Give the backbone structure.
Amino acid sequence: DGTVWAFGKNRSGQLGDGTTETRVKPVQVSGLTDIVAIDAGEEFSLALSEDGTVWAWGNNSVGQLGNGTREKALQPVQVSELTDVIAISTGEKQGYAVTSNGDVYGWGYNQGKLGDGTNKSRNSPVLIDGIYDVIAVDSGKQHTLALKEDGTVWAWGTNTHAQLGYGTPVNYSMTPNQVFLESTEPLNQIVAIDAGGFHSQAIKKDGTVRS
């Protein structure tokens, strides 16, 4: 029915029920209806509404709620200036959204990991330049993957464990770059992506997995 329920630790209000009480059973997140997707970061949460808006609650120390402030929210607040969103993802302290025209927006903790080419943490969404026609995004601890409509995969953020898949020993990338196979052939024909803590995986059209 589009309602959202949450349970567990709630120190920063990340359960969205208006309290900071730990919950051992599910409680309903306040005020949310018509929700089609959810994702949880470190002490904050995101929800995507059927109308294409994005809502956030919990810790906001580095702007990860994307509402223009750094004040935590015990109940959902709307992420600023985002409409026509089709997909969302949370990193450790970052949020991302993909719009219907294939753009990617990010907000929250940066230090070169947000993908906008700067080190500045963002309280509101900023457009991630250099990537377009995106249909899905997924963020790990400090790196992010994007799947394009053409089946290619792009990545940015920390690369200390080679999680970006560039084939080069860079420690991090502040902007999106394409993921390659070891043969220097671009990773393509991908239909799904997943970013782990320090690794990445992708499902190909033929059902095989690359990691």
Observations:
- The chain has no helices and 17 strands.
- The chain has a mean pLDDT of 96.
